[in-house]
Amino acid sequence: MAATTSAAAVGVGKSQPVVAHARTGGVRYGNPWPTWDGWLSVSKGWSFVCDAVGTGLGSLRAPVGEAPAAPPELKVLPLTAAQLTQDENLVSWFGHSTVFVRVAGKNILTDPLFYGIGIAKKRINPIPIAVHDLPKIDFVVISHNHQDHLDAKTVKELQQLFDPMFLVPKGLAQWFKSISLNVHELMWWETFIPDGTTLAFTLVPAQHWSCRNFINDMYASLWGGWVIKVAPQQDGAIVVHPGCSVYYAGDTGYAPCFKEIGPHLGPFDLSLIPIGAYIPRKTLRSQHVDPAQALQIHRDVRSKYSIGVHWGGFTLGLEHPLQPPVDLAAAIAAAGVPPASEDDISASEEDEKDAAAAAAAVAAEVADDCPAVPASSDEQLPAAAAAAAAAAAAAAAAAADYDDDAGQPSYFVTTHIGEVVAFLARAAAE
Description:
This protein is α/β, with parallel strands linked by helices. The chain has 11 helices and 20 strands. It has helices spanning 38-53, 152-162, 173-176, 258-265, 281-284, 291-300, 323-333, 347-351, 355-367, 383-391, 423-429, and strands spanning 3-7, 18-21, 27-30, 90-93, 99-103, 106-110, 139-141, 165-169, 183-186, 190-194, 199-204, 225-230, 233-235, 238-241, 244-248, 270-274, 305-309, 402-403, 409-413, 420-421. The strands form 4 sheets. A 9-stranded mixed sheet has the order 1-10-11-12-15-16-17-19-18, sandwiched between helices. The protein has a 7-stranded mixed sheet with strand order 9-8-7-6-5-4-20.
């Protein structure tokens, strides 16, 4: 598919990744903000993984948190291709970070994962539709290369069935070469415009990291979120499509970039924001937002209607699988403002830090070869995960109701797996 790529002008309020060259060759990327604690965050994350899955390295399995006192009901609603094409603009969450988005009649998947993570970690809830039962997939957006966001088996099946265009962060096209040549990679703020469509895809910043094997590819490809815009279409006096804007945050910790994305590319008719895998906070705060911070992202990017993702598919954090929507509802109930806690970022304190010095420190870090870390056996968490699977995990929809900058209400909800939402109509109706 022919296309046009444009690099947005780099100016005030547009963060750029740290880019450095490793001593052994190749490029390494880094987060430019003082909210990222670098290799310390990743090493703490690795320690957490060892504790959580019991890799045989002498660590103990960490228990999953207790079930909420009033756990929300989660249903898995089986889907058909007809249901996913019944409206020109709809969304359906498939569990974890896999979302089907249909805009202007084009079908898009985010971070498709239809199976387990690797060979060991199984789903706690089934996928609502098989790959071969999907309608034609036109585009696939990938946020980064972690196993729970980039699955080789799913990607190969999508390629064989639909030959979609894969849109990926810089440095990740190489991974796709043996699977598909129909791939396009972007840097933060670059925009991809497929010929013959009214769509525009922009890769935007996120605070995370990349790695597939923990040995020689740490930080070797970029990460980010995606903005998908549909230009308004009109035939004379008839409005064929009003235009819309969708934001997928990917995997991220809370960082200053969200206050850039909103003013530059918002507001958004639909946002897909992660709310899971956030406990323990000291370990995961740099790379995964908690539900209160997810609500803050919703407000920062000026979203009209947001859906919580990155939960309900696997047991990854130490919170109970049903806890994310409960904590999101609590944050929403607190007057629509994320509650202050020791884990929240203090803007006044962070603004006083020297961003240039922080970026230089990250550059020095990513330029060095990261120490080799043994790969996890990634066993499934025991009993509590099985109980959560039996209970299923998801959410009575809780709406964040407050006035945005334009004086219009906006909403942050959780949905059942496989629930189909005509998001333009829903946002208007609510």
